[in-house]
């Protein structure tokens, strides 16, 4: 059985924050979102040629998928790609919870197929991975990947899929200047050597690496990300200042440089987009070149910050 290779964009568009309710302080990110605002984001993204949207059932327990499905309704399905996820920790109790969760996602997203379907977190690779095979055979899922899996879990999932003529076609892990465990664990090397696209999420550490936040101007109070990051903003200042100064030379912002760093490392960053002007930053990031000494300086400052941004849902790799 032949599979079309996944066409990997330079940057994917993240919609985790789209699962927030829209009320300030109510939700993981504490984002204020409106349908009209997100339609503006989609319009700008579409015009700039960014086409892969990444979501998951557990982002707002269906809310992110529902909102995204609404926003993309006015585009031809062939004009965009959808990436969503099966999360074992939220599985139902039916005979085939993976197929069930996919059906629910298809309904919310208003489509009959998903371009890239992920097993979101490892929770018994032998149990869950085989469920992807009939979904691939049916055409409801075009490509499959694994997220938050360690190297042996990725290899095991690949072996299971391989026996049916498929393979792990993408890996998605938390990867940023502050959190490079996928590199240290050999996962980036594994992906590179096998031509598997590596998608990096939390590249901007939920906004902490944008340079927009400081002790005087912390992340939105009452949100999960504020609890995680506000206490470390002083340690991040030297790094975000360096990101800003590198950006200034190229007419770009700190966030654009952090994104360009992830691209330079051979990954596809998934950048959360909640405002139309964020798309301008993605355009700048894709056209930016970082010198090797700049990359080294940024990584040294990130190491010196000495913070641990591993998510509560992530295992040590």
UniProtKB/TrEMBL annotation:
GO CC terms: cytosol
InterPro entries: AKR, AKR_Detox_Biosynth, NAD(P)_OxRdtase_dom_sf, NADP_OxRdtase_dom
EC class of the enzyme, as a word: oxidoreductase
TM spans (from-to): none
Keyword NADP recorded: no
EC number: 1.1.1.-
CDD domains in the cross-refs: AKR_unchar (cd19103)
Superkingdom, taxonomy of origin: Bacteria
Domain NADP-dependent oxidoreductase stretches: 11-302
Keywords: Oxidoreductase
Gene Ontology terms, MF aspect: oxidoreductase activity
Gene3D superfamilies cross-referenced by the UniProt entry: NADP-dependent oxidoreductase domain
Protein name per its UniProtKB record: Aldo-keto reductase IolS
Organism from which the protein derives: Paraburkholderia fynbosensis
This protein's encoding gene: iolS_2
């Amino acid at each position: 059985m032949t599979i079309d290779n996944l066409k990997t964009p330079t940057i994917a568009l993240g919609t985790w924050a789209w699962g927030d309710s829209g009320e300030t302080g109510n939700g993981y990110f504490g984002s204020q979102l409106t349908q009209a605002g997100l339609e503006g984001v989609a319009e700008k993204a579409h015009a700039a040629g960014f086409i892969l949207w990444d979501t998951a059932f557990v982002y707002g327990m269906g809310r992110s998928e529902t909102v995204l499905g609404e926003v993309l309704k006015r585009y031809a399905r062939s004009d965009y790609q959808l990436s969503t996820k099966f999360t074992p920790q939220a599985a139902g109790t039916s005979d085939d919870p993976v197929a069930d969760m996919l059906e629910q996602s298809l309904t919310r997203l208003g489509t009959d197929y998903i371009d890239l379907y992920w097993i979101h977190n490892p929770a018994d690779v032998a149990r869950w991975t085989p469920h992807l095979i009939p979904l691939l055979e049916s055409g409801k899922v075009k490509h499959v990947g694994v997220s938050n899996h360690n190297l042996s879990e990725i290899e095991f999932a690949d072996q299971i899929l391989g026996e049916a003529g498929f393979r792990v076609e993408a890996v998605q892990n938390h990867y940023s200047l502050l959190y490079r465990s996928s590199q240290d664990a050999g996962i980036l090397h594994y992906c590179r050597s096998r031509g598997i696209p590596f998608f990096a999420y939390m590249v901007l550490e939920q906004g902490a690496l944008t340079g927009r936040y400081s002790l005087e101007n912390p992340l939105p109070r009452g949100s999960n990300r504020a609890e995680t990051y506000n206490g470390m903003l002083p340690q991040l200042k030297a790094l975000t200042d360096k990101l800003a100064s590198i950006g200034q030379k190229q007419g770009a912002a700190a966030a654009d440089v952090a994104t360009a760093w992830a691209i330079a490392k051979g990954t596809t960053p998934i950048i959360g987009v909640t405002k139309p002007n964020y798309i301008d930053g993605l355009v700048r990031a894709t056209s930016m070149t970082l010198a090797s000494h700049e990359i080294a300086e940024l990584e040294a400052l990130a190491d010196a910050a000495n913070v641990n941004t591993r998510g509560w849902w992530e295992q040590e790799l």
